[in-house]
Design brief:
The N and C termini lie far apart (119 Å). The chain is an alpha+beta fold. The protein has a domain of 136 residues: OB fold (Dihydrolipoamide Acetyltransferase, E2P) (Beta Barrel), CATH 2.40.50.90. Strand 8 and strand 9 form a beta hairpin. Helix 5 runs parallel beside helix 6. 34% of the residues lie in helices and 23% in strands. The longest helix has 18 residues. The strands form three sheets. It has a five-stranded mixed beta barrel with strand order 3-4-5-8-7. A two-stranded antiparallel ribbon has the order 1-2. It has seven helices and ten strands.
């Protein structure tokens, strides 16, 4: 132990001072944050930008709605049993083939305008309702092919289940079961099987 001479010549012990203070975790974090701020202020602009990129979390992508989807929601004008017009855009119902407007079904005295009946049925169904369509494809005429719903109900399925349209197997098998139910219940054109499939009717003209 070292000593030092005090006044009056008496020797007193000399003790080295001890660091009695300790930093709490909160104080350490505060010191680190303060140091970071000081470095950020003193650093060149390019360094500050890089540091900001590291500490800034990327913004979450906000859900967007495509223009096509937005344009395919609204009141629908019925063109025929499988074609709608929504906000000026023609929409072909996915997976169904409805009878043409001037097409007849049945034979002899039981002949009826099945195409016109389907168009009228769909017009009444959609009257005053909002239709939302999910675009799936574009047909050779430039129309949007879409799955359309109103009030959660699939419009294509509604037409097929009532015998006002057929499942368009060439493009989709989505509505085959709906067609089977209509046939079993003898609804629409299935009251009398004397009809020509719309696809074949068009091909003959």
């Amino acid at each position: 132990m070292t000593t030092r001479t005090a006044m009056r010549g008496r020797a007193i012990p000399f003790r080295r001072p001890r660091l009695a203070w300790r930093l709490s975790p909160a104080e350490i974090l505060g010191a680190v944050a303060l140091l970071a701020v000081c470095l950020a202020v003193a650093a060149p602009p390019a360094w500050r930008d890089a540091a900001a990129d590291l500490w800034t979390a990327p913004a979450a992508a906000s859900p967007t709605t495509s223009d096509a989807t937005t344009g395919l929601t609204g009141p629908a004008r019925v063109i025929d049993g499988d074609t709608l017009e929504i906000n000026g855009e023609r929409v072909r119902l996915h997976g169904v083939d409805a009878f043409e407007r001037n097409q007849t079904c049945g034979a002899g005295a039981s002949t009826w305008y099945c195409g016109l009946a389907g168009t009228d049925a769909l017009t009444r169904r959609l009257d005053g309702r909002t239709v939302s369509c999910e675009p799936l494809d574009t047909d050779r005429y430039g129309r949007t092919v879409a799955r359309c719903r109103t009030g959660g109900e699939d419009i294509g399925a509604w037409m097929v289940e009532r015998g006002m349209a057929l499942a368009y197997r060439e493009y989709s098998l989505d509505y085959v079961e709906a067609e089977d139910r209509a046939r079993a219940a003898r609804l629409g054109v299935w009251r009398n099987t004397a009809f020509t499939a719309p696809q074949d009717w068009r091909a003959a003209r």
